[in-house]
Amino acid sequence: MVSNRLNIVLPLAAAVLVISALAVTVTADYVRPPPRKTLHFPWVSRPSSQPQQVHVSLAGNKHIRVTWITSDSSSPSLVEYGTSPGKYNFRGHGDTTSYSYLFYSSGTIHHTVIGPLEDDTVYFYRCGGQGPELKFKTPPSEFPVTLAVAGDLGQTGWTQSTLEHIDLCQYDLHLLPGDLSYADYIQNRWDTFGELVQPLASARPWMVTQGNHEKESIPFFKEGFESFNARWKMPYEESGSTSNLYYSFEVAGVHVVMLGSYTDYDETSDQYNWLKADLSTVDRKRTPWLLALFHVPWYNSNSAHQGEGDNMMEAMEPLLHAAGVDIVFAGHVHAYERSKRVYNGKSDPCGAVHVTIGDGGNKEGLAHKYKEPSPEWSVFREASFGHGELKIVNSTHAFWSWHRNDDDEPVRSDEVWITSLMSSGCVAEERKEAREILWSP
User: Fold this and answer.
1) pLDDT of amino acid 47
2) CA angle 268, 269, 272 (to 5 degrees)
3) Pairing state of beta strands 386-392 and 378-382?
């Protein structure tokens, strides 16, 4: 049930949006500290069957995938779980995978899907029949729902601050638009990243898509994304996709499409055809909110990575616009930026709000330079590390806030109420031209 405070504030949302639409671009002049050094992880001896790098993700309706790694290949892919500490009334069995990369051999990577599970419920669980007891909370089945968003994480001191700040918010799900570990071919950095994020990733579902730092291809020897696909398996099969690099899922009243900036996306590609089919089946009465995530931003007024998303935008933006996507999240640029509703380079009441949030704490530092004058569609931009929170209150209103890391404290630097396109006549069912784009042969 929505709180009284939110009921009072909601009528102000339209006014806030009007003010936001009329305002000129704000480029924050906050003086940012330099990037912090990459964290160093001391080697710790563990039993070979000890579960490590535990994380959970959604795996279809009312199911969770639990992923962990062991050094011992004979350790069972068993998850015991229940709703009381130490009492495991249910068991799930999964499968394993592994990979080799030059002189590196991964441990045994376990993937076990458990469920059906109750919504909005804390479960206590144990992996492999031993190890410490962990717990996760399933997302709610209806509004309100809160999504934490942070991309380009890496493994620096700023990453640690970002994770600590996300942990402070009462979120239900983490969305990560690419560039996870910054392993960059050094495979044990995937292991240290798994250890770094386990406290959060084992307690709430993490839904991720790939970035350029996940590719790790070696011509004529290694295809791209082998490490990413083995370690971070997402529910692509459940969404009808044939690739772990793009998929969709639903949570509460939200349909989310996770796209791949580094796999084929033109009109003849499998990804394009999958996206068109996926968007054409979205029921906006059941999931009134529609979000999209990918790595390379389409709307970017930072000097960094200019134009890199243009080809993907040319191919896929008409599909997102026809479907009435509400918000698009991207990473890649190591700074924050939020747009007005925009389509085809211009403000559009039926366009998506684009948010660049590649500022989780990467080792490469921040992208400080913005283009001047700022484009008409840009509302707020700041080169700082931080994270975002999207609190979807009901079928029509959501509150977005971005929190910079300021001396290890989360400081809310940008915020806005967003009204769903479902309530504005912009969804495909209500526009002939949109129906023709989505449902044409």
Assistant:
1) 59
2) 100
3) unpaired
The C-alpha atoms of residue 39 and residue 18 are separated, in whole angstroms, by 44
State which of 122, 137, 152 marks the end of a domain: 137
Residue 107's contacts (CB-CB under 8 Å, 6 or more residues apart) are 52, 69, 70, 71, 98, 191
Report the distance separating Cα 249 and Cα 350, nearest Å. 23
What are the backbone angles phi and psi of residue 432, rounded to the nearest 5°? -60, -45
From 115, 137, 159, the end of a domain falls on 137
Q: What distances in angstroms separate CA 55 from CA 163, 196, 203, one per listed residue?
A: 14, 11, 8
d(CA 1, CA 185): 47
Domain of residue 129, CATH code = 2.60.40.380
Q: What is the CATH number of the domain that holds 251?
A: 3.60.21.10
Residues 16 and 131 in one domain: no
Statement to judge: residues 201 and 235 lie in one domain: yes
Q: Write down the H helix ranges in 169-218.
A: 188-201
Active site (catalytic) residues = 305
- Residue 384 in any domain: the answer is yes
Percent pLDDT > 70 in the chain is 89
Strand ranges across the sheet with 134-137:
90-93, 78-82, 122-127, 134-137
Q: What whole-number distance in Å separates Cα of residue 416 and Cα of residue 171?
A: 18
Q: Which helix (H) or strand (E) holds 164?
A: helix 157-168
User: How far is it, in rounded angstroms, from Cα 4 to Cα 10?
Assistant: 10
Phi-psi region of 60 (alpha: psi -120 to 50; beta: other; left: phi over 0): left
Closest CA to 195 of 75, 53, 345, 74: 53
Domain hosting 121: range is 53-137
402 and 338 Cβ atoms separated by less than 8 Å: yes
Determine, yes or no, domain membership for 46: no
H or E segment to which residue 336 belongs: strand 336-343
Q: Check whether residue 80 and residue 149 sit in a common domain.
A: no
CA distances from 51 to 76, 396, 401 (A): 10, 42, 35
Q: Are 149 and 389 in contact (CB under 8 A)?
A: yes
pLDDT digits over 146-183, tens only? 999 999 999 999 999 999 999 999 999 999 999 999 99
Q: Which of 32-36, 59-63, 417-421 has the lowest mean pLDDT?
A: 32-36
Q: What is the phi/psi pair of residue 135, to 5°?
A: -145, 145
Residues forming a β-bridge with 416? 400
